[in-house]
Amino acid sequence: MLRWQALAETHGVDLVLCISSALRHGMVDQEEAQRYECSGPTISPIFAISGLGQLVDACAHSDRFITFGG
C-alpha cells in the first residue's frame, strides 16, 4: 500500500475504487461499513469509494483513462 500512497502524494492522484467492485470483494470505507453494518473499514483512508458518476466526470475531464485487472 505504501507505493499507492506515494503515487497519490507525489503526483496528486485520486485513488478511487468502484463501489460495485469494492463491495463485491469486501472492501469498504468507514461510511460503507456503517451502512452495511460491518465491523469497520477494510481499506485505507487514502482510497475513496465512488460510483459511475465520478468515473464519467473524470473521463470527460481527462486525456487518459487507465484500468487494472479484468
Fold blueprint:
Elements: H1 2-11, E1 15-18, H2 19-24, H3 30-35, E2 47-50, H4 52-60
Parallel strand pairs: 1-2
Overview in brief:
The protein has 70 residues and is of the alpha+beta class. 44% of the residues lie in helices and 11% in strands. It has one domain (2-60): Hypothetical Protein Ychn, Chain: A (3-Layer(aba) Sandwich), CATH 3.40.1260.
Strand content: 5-15%
| Distance between the first and last residues' Cα | 20 Å
Please outline the major beta sheet. 2 strands, parallel
Number of domains: 1
Total strands: the figure is: 2
Mean pLDDT, nearest integer? 91
Uncertain parts: none
How large is the radius of gyration? 13 Å
The CATH architecture: 3-Layer(aba) Sandwich
**Total count of helical runs of at least 4 residues:** 4
Q: CATH superfamily membership, which one?
A: DsrEFH-like
Elements, N to C (H/E): HEHHEH
In the sheet with the most strands, the strands line up as 1-2
Assembly category: single chain
Query: Would you tell me which CATH topology applies?
Result: Hypothetical Protein Ychn, Chain: A
Rough outline: globular
**Helix-and-strand structural type:** alpha+beta
Q: What level of helicity do the residues show?
A: 40-55%
Question: For the record, what CATH class applies?
Answer: Alpha Beta
